[in-house]
């Protein structure tokens, strides 16, 4: 009891006060204010008018909203398994001391991670340019006619996924690599002594021990891809994103800065925030339960 009182002393609160103030001003207040604005009609200039659930009713009848939800879900479903599997594969490769040029490969894998998403978008936009892009150039050598990949509704969303994989692959690889390097060597040696082959050692020893790293990768990758905006906006040329590429984060931007419907945008942002929050809480609870920690 005495230690607890010492921990909750006046000095503790004084030291933590700047952090609490910053948290309230830049995190808590904007979230609460956005939640409130979701129940108003506001153009960003006049006084907000409370309209109750009108914005949410409008949302349910908005074709752009449902297209954005569909695109978000499609990107999420395809991106998440790929970034997890590729990250684990690259980590296993880079963890192997027998691989030649490991440091060079690490630099290549991390390249997308250290670049801003706007730069990643510009790089891919140039690569996929229908007239001067290197992708169409190589395809023309194979006898394939040039194609406007980003302008084609049937292919555009796949390049958002590919660009996101390139940008985020370094993170998942780094987390899995850290998990591999933190494994207990004695456990791995014991599995070898017991006669486990490489697949059995991976399936029954390494993979279960990497579960905390797996939860971190899945959680952070999900948050990243659910709120993806920069890549979609830049790949569209920095203009209006076509409906077939629209995602919820872009829709928030569109409603605020193009349509000046701040209240409607706030309701979309609230829905997106709740979805990300619930998913994150679910994954964190799973990680805590797997570690045997009571909540």
Query: What shape does the CA trace take?
Result: globular
SS content category: mainly alpha
Low-confidence stretches: none
Give the termini separation: 21 Å
Radius of gyration: 24 Å
Q: Strand content of the residues, in percent?
A: under 5%
Sequence of secondary-structure elements = HHEEHHHHHHHHHHHH
Q: What oligomeric state do these chains adopt?
A: single chain
List the strand order in the largest sheet. 1-2
The overall pLDDT, averaged over residues, is: 86
Percentage of residues in helical conformation: over 70%
Number of helices: 14
* Main beta-sheet strand count, sense and barrel state: 2 strands, antiparallel
Number of strand elements: 2
Structure description:
Strands 1-2 form a two-stranded antiparallel sheet. Helices cover 73% and strands 1% of the residues. The protein is globular. A hairpin with a 7-residue loop joins strand 1 and strand 2. It is mainly alpha-helical and 295 residues long. The chain is built from 14 helices and two strands; from the N terminus they run ααββαααααααααααα.
Name some characteristics of this structure:
single chain; 295 residues; mainly alpha; two-stranded antiparallel sheet; 14 helices; 2 strands; globular
Q: How would you briefly describe this protein structure?
A:
The chain has 295 residues and is mostly helical. The chain is 73% helix and 1% strand.
